[in-house]
Amino acid sequence: MKPEHTQINPNDRRSFLSLLNTAWHEWSLRLFLAVTLLHWAEHLTQAYQIWVMGWSRPEALGLIGYYYPWLVHSEWLHYGYAIVMLLFFFLLQRGFTGKSLVWWRIALIIQFWHHIEHALLLGQALAGHNIGGAAAATSLIQLVVPRVELHLFYNTVVFVPMIVAMLLHMLPTEAEKSSMRCSCSIR
């Protein structure tokens, strides 16, 4: 049975940030994981379209892009997702303790860089001037690594420490568990 403080009470007067990291932490992490997995599905669909189906890169837009190509071509969509991820990492970190907090912060730092890259892409799209006169907005690392592969890499290096953090958070040591204020522990 879960502790009583983990029940969501609409009359709770604690701050939103406090609730996100206590009573709502478990469900917030589940929501964040679902959003992240849906994003992964988009990138994996795009990779499948390129490497298995043989589509050209301009044709391979993932599932959303298949139906709404204008949306996937929008740097606003990509920047918006990067900022949402960064906000989730930032807002939910207070619920972590010990080793899980270390891994969560690693993911947060990597996502911060990923966000910078997307801010650069959005800035180019808004200004109408691309790095090095490229035909499309280009991130710094994209000068060396193609965009599809780069985003698969970014999503991996953010996702792995995020999952490690979540697993460690669900399976805390006794010392970590005693300082937790949420219901995420399955021990």
Q: Which short descriptors sum up this protein?
A:
mainly alpha, 187 residues, transmembrane, membrane, elongated, transmembrane helix, 0% strand, single chain
What does it look like?
The N terminus is likely disordered. The chain has one domain. It is an all-alpha fold and 187 residues long. The longest helix is centred in the middle third of the chain and has 30 residues. Helices cover 64% and strands 0% of the residues. It contains 8 helices and no strands. It starts with 15 loop residues before the first helix and ends in an 8-residue tail after the last helix. Keywords: Membrane, Transmembrane, Transmembrane helix.
Outline the secondary-structure elements.
Blueprint (H helix, E strand, L loop, with lengths): L15 H5 L4 H27 L10 H6 L1 H4 L2 H18 L5 H30 L19 H24 L3 H6 L8
Helix pairs in contact: 2-7, 5-6, 6-7
Keywords: Membrane, Transmembrane, Transmembrane helix
Outline of the structure:
It is built from eight helices and no strands.
- Report the uncertain regions: 1-6
Taking all residues together, what is the mean pLDDT?
A: 91
Helix content: 55-70%
What does the overall shape look like? elongated
Per DSSP E runs of 2 or more residues, the count of β-strands stands at 0
Instruction: Determine the N-to-C terminus distance.
Output: 11 Å
Number of helices: 8
Strand content: under 5%
Whole-number radius of gyration? 19 Å
Largest sheet: none
Helix/strand-derived class?
A: mainly alpha
- Tally of structural domains: 1
**Helix-strand sequence:** HHHHHHHH
Transmembrane segments: 76-93, 152-171
Keywords: Membrane, Transmembrane, Transmembrane helix
